[in-house]
Amino acid sequence: MRVRFQVQGLLLALGLLLSGASLAAKAPVLGEHLEYTLKFRGLVTGFVEMNIAKMTMAVEREMGRVDENPAIVTDLHLTTEPYRKAEMIYPVRLHYRSWLDANKLHPLVAVKSLKTREEKEELLWFDHSQGEAYHYQSGELRGGKNSRPPKNLQGVTALSDEQWENLLQAHQVSFGGIEALDYISFLHRLRSMPLKSGKQINFSTFNGKELNAYQVKVDQERLVRAGWNRPAFRVRMWEVDTENGKKGEMVDLWLSDDNERLLLRFYAERTFGAMEGILETGRPIGGRDEGFSEATQSSLETYLGF
User: Fold this and answer.
1) Would you say 102 and 28 are in contact if contact means Cβ atoms under 8 Å apart?
2) Residues in a beta bridge with 212
3) First-last CA distance in the chain
4) 273 - beta bridge partners?
5) 223 touches 253 (CB < 8 A)
6) What is the bridge-based pairing of β-strands 69-79 and 263-270?
7) H-state helical runs in the chain
8) Cα separation of 15 and 181, whole Å?
């Protein structure tokens, strides 16, 4: 089984977050701190649901600045450290820090540190004035350029001289008139856009290598899961091939239908396993659940003949 799904699936799920809700949502809340539990079910777990990671998404209390642009600074942390079995299978330490334009909520710069059995650092720079996105990473590059990020970004990101010297340009992509977002700006755009059931939205993201197109469909339903019992929007998202219009695999997200616009749950199922994320912050204790998750129910039906 491709256990890397634990990280890549998470990032994809976060990257599928562009739409809004029927109520007027607020801008990112300075000081917000949300905690999630990630669950996985697949061949490696004997098709039994298992907690594999803790994730936090936060907005720093103080505003930042990138050149002349006031910026909202966000942090995403993911770790398998609390779970011994996950640590044995595939240990992960992920930190993604992103600076978003305070007015347009598009990304200006982002730093990603990922440690599994290897360690890699990356920097994404969105040069909106020139319509270009740049990807820099540490380590030896094949076919990459020797140029480093603009020096002024070192002060923004607070990277050490050693970290900075290790970053070399790997990719450069032209927006081509498309507004490219990063995964975290998706989420905050989602929380600030109007949304209604049946709405469809198209958007693009820069993943460090290329621009990817996505399609979103929104429906309304009540989320009753893991103690939550709350009106929500179910956001279904697919990556779309721009040449033939073919849709890729689907990811579902549930966002609260209120002025908080919280990401309550996300879920993605593949042939080799399924991942679910549940918001722990504010989760009611002792609330009634609807029963098995999609992952567990599918396993019971397929493997136990229920």
Assistant:
1) no
2) 205
3) 24
4) 42, 270
5) no
6) unpaired
7) 5-15, 84-89, 152-157, 161-165, 183-190, 294-303
8) 9
- Residue recorded with tokens 């929104």: 218
Summarised one tens digit per residue, pLDDT across range 239-283 is: 898 888 888 889 999 999 998 999 999 999 888 889 999 999 999
Cα distance between residue 60 and residue 58, in whole Å: 6
> Which residues 6+ apart lie within 8 Å of 105 measured at CB?
27, 28, 72, 185, 188, 189, 192
Tokens matching residue 186: 């998706």
Residue 211 β-bridge partners:
206
* 276 CB burial (10 A radius; 0-12, 13-18, 19+): buried
Kindly state the tokens that stand for 86: 């996950």
In tens, the pLDDT along 16-31 reads 333 233 333 456 899 9
DSSP states of 142-209: SS--S----THHHHHHT--HHHHHT-EEEEEEE-TT--EE-HHHHHHHHTTSB--TT-EEEEEEE-SS
Quote the Cα angle for 15-17-21, to 5°: 175
Dihedral sign from CA coordinates of 238, 100, 140, 4: negative
Q: How many CA atoms lie within 13 A of 192 on its CB side?
A: 15
Contact 277, 264 (CB under 8 A): no
The single-letter DSSP state of residue 90 is: -
Give whole-number Cα distances, 271 to 50, 208, 250, 278, in Å.
17, 26, 12, 21
pLDDT, tens digit, 9 for 90 and up, residues 202-221: 888 898 889 988 888 999 99
CB-count burial class (<10 Å; 0-12, 13-18, 19+) for 228:
buried
